[in-house]
Amino acid sequence: MLRIIFAALTVAAAVVGAQATPAYWTVHEPKGGTAYLVSSLHLLPRGTEWHNDTLEKAMASSDSFVFEVPTGVDEHREETRFIYHRGLLPDGQTLTGLLDDTGKRDYARALEMAGMQASALDQKQPWLAEVVLTVQAMYRRNYSAENTPEGYAHYFAAHGGKDIRYLDTTRQQMEFLAGANPDGDIGKFSAVLADFPNQAEREQHFVDAWLKGDVSTSATLVSTGLHDYPDAWGRLVDRNKAWAEQIKDMLRENRTFFVAVGIAHLVGPEGVPALLRAKGIAVDGP
């Protein structure tokens, strides 16, 4: 995922010797349902321990489980179609050819850090190359999506025969990613490449904040990561508003929902909990 988004969604190491307390919120509808909004991270280093009794009890008491986007076979095909139509450079163009000498140097360094060859990325639009490069570098540092709150909750729900819902479609998510970096924006990609060596340290700040449930620091890190990208920030806020509306509608049902999404969508004055409070809905939590 894009660096500016992953900065708010990813972590780099576990906190050792401390009880992890990822932030969560409880949303109440007096004549309807309850929703637990649980902050997650899309990738975690293997062995990171985030489980606690509170989240386990919330999961066990929930009727329905809600996640960002489905990841089945049909969704993979839709993603492939989108990349074919929106993720490739025009014939005759390559990323290497679009970069200046400094960019070429930074590109080579980032590829080495990710364990990739230029041939794997050179035909991709800058936004897609950034996604692939960032994720591959994290995989190389032993990151995984398996033991995240959303991954664990999805496994629990699927094997327990629970009702599973999603806030976005695959296309909506791909449009969100592609829209954060317009086609052919090589300047933005060059900035990402120049900053690539700082990625692991930046992620470490998020792991500390997320595992401690420090929503204030998390919100600051999210806004700092996006302050140079007002269009991306606006898209994030629009997404949060749409999700808040969907959750509001769900609360009309007499059910308990376990909603696990990336922490960037939950913190700050334009996060989902704050947006729900602004609608007059009772939300307990930080």
Plain-language structure description:
The structure is a single chain. This protein is of the alpha/beta class. The chain has one domain (3-284). β1 and β2 form a beta hairpin. It has helices at 3-9, 53-60, 73-86, 95-98, 101-114, 126-140, 149-159, 170-179, 186-195, 199-212, 215-226, 230-250, 272-278, and strands at residues 24-28, 34-40, 44-45, 64-67, 143-144, 163-166, 256-262, 282-284. The strands form two sheets. Strands 6-4-7-2-1-8 form a six-stranded mixed sheet, sandwiched between helices. Helices cover 51% and strands 12% of the residues. The protein has 13 helices and eight strands. Residues 1-17 have low confidence and may be disordered.
What are the main properties of this structure?
alpha/beta, six-stranded mixed sheet, 51% helix, disordered N terminus, 13 helices, two-stranded antiparallel ribbon, 286 residues
